[in-house]
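From the pipeline queue, job 12 of 40. The input is one protein chain; the requested action is below.

Action: predict structure.
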Amino acid sequence: MSNSTNFVVVKVDPVNKTMVIDWGYIRLNHRIPNQILENSNLSQNKIIELIEKMRPKQPEPIEIPKGLQFLIDKTDQELSQQTIQDEILL
């Protein structure tokens, strides 16, 4: 039986009892819940249910403050200038 999830467990660290989960919009490191660690006979559905409870809220877009936008624009300009210089050197 195959279970469909809206997340991917990318990596499990058994030493530190953590796992990296890709939620589709963010990738986070989480502690493996004790309920999972202490119950090796849990069903796959129950494990999915427990992991789903850790899902972070999906971020909502914000208006970027002008001061931050200036820094982004400045970085974009610097990268564009570097790309032009790199192309000239080729």
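Job complete. The mean pLDDT is 87.
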